[in-house]
């Protein structure tokens, strides 16, 4: 190892943007609108390549030493022709503020390879500390390529797990079982990577993730999901300028087609305990190209606490109802201005565009439900996308109507006198219908404790 010197509007959840070269939202449809100035999937032509480091490593021993000694602000640079076998060491920690870098893409180079031939179940190869960066590397796990899977065995191996303020860029990540990048912190950006042969989730937005999360200009080959979310309150992601390519699952999976590409699960504790389906807070899926075979493009498995927006994507399936789905069609999903099928047929406003209902005060749904007493003022924001209009809004408590109108209730309009109710959990439900007759319904629980 060589060491060298060295507005917000009320109720709208805003994700702090990452610094990007181009405008936040481009025109056009699909990933071809990519305004970043760098190629989708990284590699040849990528510009933000690290050329040198404070630690220069070419062997496993040198890399392990550098990981122990490096401090915030320093760079561990992996030699261009290095092939570093990390079979054996587990739970490798990239220290806070440290960059681990190679030169993938410089003059068309594949980039240095870091790999392992075995990895314990439910373990990852790297854990990236706060404010760290992993860039310009090939990172390969121990699992077979998807096309080579015979009898399936779930091992839950992972490539990179992240902390807060982590950047993963211009990497090729492959051959893991559970996830290529497992996002477990706030303000994480995964961009310009080529991720393939990851059995379950090339990118997963996990339970400890917090907004903002940006997934940008990646090339992702997948069989189960391309991007998945846990659905936990406070989580979500923006996925933009990605090219998603579905491939047939192995026969042992017994799936007739690939799974859906963009996913947000329902928050499982809330679903299990109260039969409610909360699917994160905010999801924005725009300017992606999804080559789906017979797969579903977007599947939201509950109701986001704020909303999911799906726009300016190109889905290879010609049917919007196949391209974009929501379980029970409960709402807070705005799907608009996407194109479908090989002829890129525009459908500006499919039925998948539904009214949005956001509980402002108390902030709901929550698990466990918030404890309230005395008089509780409810603030509920109801809105529709663009040219649509609200037709009716109904608010119920325990299936009894307590308010109705053509618009959402003004702030302070609804006050619950909890002393007139029994202690315990009570279900609050809001139903909103637009001028097409398309409805959304969102429910939450309050725990009254006088």
Describe the 3D structure.
The chain has three helices and 40 strands. It is mainly beta. The chain has two domains: 331 residues, 3 Solenoid (Pectate Lyase C-like), CATH 2.160.20; 93 residues, Immunoglobulin-like, CATH 2.60.40. A twelve-stranded mixed β-sheet has the order 1-2-3-6-9-12-15-18-21-24-27-30, covered by helices on one side. A hairpin with a 2-residue loop joins strand 36 and strand 37. About 4% of the residues have low confidence.
Q: In brief, what are we looking at here?
A:
The chain folds into two domains: 17-347, Pectate Lyase C-like, CATH 2.160.20; 356-448, Sandwich (Immunoglobulin-like), CATH 2.60.40. The chain is 5% helix and 40% strand. The strands form six sheets. The chain has a twelve-stranded mixed β-sheet with strand order 1-2-3-6-9-12-15-18-21-24-27-30, with helices on one face.
How much helicity do the residues have?
under 10%
Strand content: 35-45%
Rg calc: 23 Å
Do you know the CATH topology of the largest domain? Pectate Lyase C-like
Ends distance: 66 Å
What is the CATH first-level class name of the largest domain?
A: Mainly Beta
DSSP strand tally: 40
Give the biggest sheet: 12 strands, mixed
**Roughly what is the average pLDDT, rounded to an integer?**
91
Number of separate helices: 3
């Amino acid at each position: 190892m060589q060491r060298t010197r060295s507005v917000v509007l009320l109720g709208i959840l805003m994700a702090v943007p990452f610094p990007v070269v181009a405008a936040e939202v481009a025109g056009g449809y699909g990933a071809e609108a990519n305004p970043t100035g760098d190629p989708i999937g990284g590699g040849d032509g990528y510009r933000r390549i690290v050329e040198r480091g404070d630690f220069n490593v070419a062997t496993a021993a040198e890399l392990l030493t550098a990981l122990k000694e490096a401090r915030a602000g320093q760079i561990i640079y992996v030699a261009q022709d290095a092939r570093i076998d990390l079979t054996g060491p587990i739970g490798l920690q990239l220290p806070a503020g440290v960059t681990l870098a190679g030169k993938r893409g410089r003059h068309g180079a594949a980039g240095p390879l870091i790999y392992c031939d075995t990895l314990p179940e439910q373990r990852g190869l790297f854990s990236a500390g706060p404010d760290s960066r992993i860039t310009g590397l090939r990172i390969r796990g121990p699992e077979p390529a998807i096309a080579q899977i015979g009898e399936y065995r779930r091992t839950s191996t992972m490539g990179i797990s992240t902390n807060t303020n982590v950047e993963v860029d211009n990497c090729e990540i492959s051959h893991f079982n559970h996830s290529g990048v497992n996002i477990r912190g706030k303000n994480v950006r995964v961009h310009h990577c080529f991720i393939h042969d990851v059995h379950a989730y090339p990118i997963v937005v996990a339970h400890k993730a917090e907004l903002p999360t940006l997934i940008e200009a990646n090339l992702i080959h997948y069989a189960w999901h391309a991007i998945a979310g846990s659905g936990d309150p406070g989580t979500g992601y923006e996925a933009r300028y990605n090219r998603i390519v579905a491939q047939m699952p192995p026969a042992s999976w017994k799936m007739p087609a690939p799974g859906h590409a963009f996913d947000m699960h329902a928050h499982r504790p809330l679903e299990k305990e109260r039969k409610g389906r909360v699917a994160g807070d905010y999801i924005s899926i725009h300017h992606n190209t999804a080559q789906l075979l017979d797969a579903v493009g977007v599947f939201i498995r509950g109701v986001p606490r704020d909303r999911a927006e799906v726009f300016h994507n190109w889905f290879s399936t010609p049917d919007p109802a196949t391209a974009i789905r929501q379980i029970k069609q409960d709402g807070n999903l705005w799907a608009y201005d996407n194109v479908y099928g090989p002829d890129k047929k525009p459908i500006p406003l499919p039925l998948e565009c539904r009214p949005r209902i956001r509980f402002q005060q108390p902030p709901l749904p929550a698990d466990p439900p918030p404890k309230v007493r005395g008089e509780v003022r409810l603030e509920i924001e109801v809105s529709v996308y663009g040219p649509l209009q609200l037709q009716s809004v109904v608010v119920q408590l325990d299936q009894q109507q307590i308010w109705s109108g053509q618009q959402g209730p003004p702030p302070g309009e609804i006050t619950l006198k909890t002393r007139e109710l029994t202690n315990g959990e009570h279900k609050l439900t809001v139903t909103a219908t637009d001028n097409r007759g398309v409805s959304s319904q969102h429910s939450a629980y309050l725990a009254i404790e006088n």
